[in-house]
Amino acid sequence: MIPVVFIPSPPLLLPSLNPHPLAIHDRLRDVVLEACKALTSAEEVVVIGGPSVGQRPDHTGYPTGVTLYPPDLPGCEDRFQGRPPGEGAELPLSLTVGRWALRAAGHPPEGSLTLALAAGSPAEIRTGLQSTDQVRLGPRSALLVVGDGTAGRHEKAPLHVVAGAAELDDRLAMMLADADLGGIMRLPTELDIEFGLDGRSAWQAAAVLLAQSGAAVRSARLLDYSDPHHVAYFVARWDAELPV
Fold this sequence. Notes:
This protein has 244 residues and is α/β, with parallel strands linked by helices. The protein has one domain (2-241): Protocatechuate 4,5-dioxygenase, Chain B.
């Protein structure tokens, strides 16, 4: 069985940015780290992140497809957004949060990590995954998927109020709770900008990666669905079985 964990990417999870968290932040951090414990014994963890469009709705700097990052690149703990490769690169926010969550949950520093940023349409993501042999799932792998829901649930949200944002988040929560790979793959790219939907590309990359490996999801649970800062955060756990 391959454990698959979905977590959000709010900067408030990082202790360097939020050393004195409120109770709501402590709770979210606890749920994320508890979920990530399921990944810590894997020989290799594949971390797939989204481009943080909810934090930077105007950001278009990342190439489409799948971009690999070395695990030892510096994170962006002092900023909210990393830079693409070739521009004095640092890890994007989603991959910074994913790497931190794994280590904080107990994954050993010497453990194997593959860090990949997914951006673009489902077809571009599929082509990107097919073009590299470095992002694969095997019998001793685990998958961590990092991305947020919509960023338009409230006037204080990054996109303020976007009609239909809360309803879309409810649908997304059901997709993660039911491991609805078809529904995830049908999410259009336009949602990224319209709703600040950060997780769409990462979730679709996970669906493609599971399909490419022939894995079947045997169980799925939604562990948390909250919006402490009017951005939807999901924590979910799937267990996928590889063919014999």
